[in-house]
Specification:
Blueprint lengths: L6 H134 L2 H19 L1
């Protein structure tokens, strides 16, 4: 029992009692701190899960919007192609109408030129025939007879031309 008089023994016993007495409040303090930290970690995990779900929802929303935008763009392309084809067809129809009008106008001008050429040839022919007849009759007939024949021929000429 010599160890009872040893101060080291009593320091060790006091230390064990002190540690034993402090272990319960320190354990509660440490446990409370760990519980608080655990609750914070749990809250952070829940918040992270909520943020992940929100991100998933946003991703789905933007993917849906992207699909809608692509569909709308495709519809716009189809509409633009249809409109372009319609405008091309309309341009062709207008061009054909203009070409038909110009062809008709050219044909009318050609017909008018033909009529005018025929009239000019007839007039020249009549002039030549009259001049030749006058010259021939002047040489062959006497003055009075020639004038009477020329006047009769001139009267009959309009009926003979048509």
């Amino acid at each position: 029992m010599a160890f009872l008089s040893d101060p080291t023994f009593w320091v060790a016993v006091a230390f064990v009692i002190f540690v034993g007495a402090m272990a319960k409040p320190a354990g509660k303090l440490i446990t409370g701190s760990l519980d608080t930290r655990s609750d914070k970690i749990r809250a952070d995990l829940e918040e992270a899960e909520n943020l992940r779900e929100e991100a998933q929802d946003l991703l789905a929303t933007y993917q849906r919007k992207q699909r809608d935008a692509i569909q709308e763009a495709e519809a716009m392309i189809v509409q633009a192609q249809t409109e372009a084809e319609r405008l091309i067809q309309q341009g062709r129809e207008r061009l054909e109408a203009v070409l038909e009008r110009r062809e008709k106008l050219a044909m009318d001008r050609i017909a008018q030129a033909e009529v005018q050429a025929i009239d000019t040839v007839r007039a020249k022919t009549v002039d030549i025939a009259l001049n030749a007849t006058r010259g021939f009759l002047a040489d062959q007939l006497k003055d009075k007879q020639a004038e009477a024949l020329i006047d009769a021929a001139i009267k009959d000429l309009p009926g003979n031309l048509h």
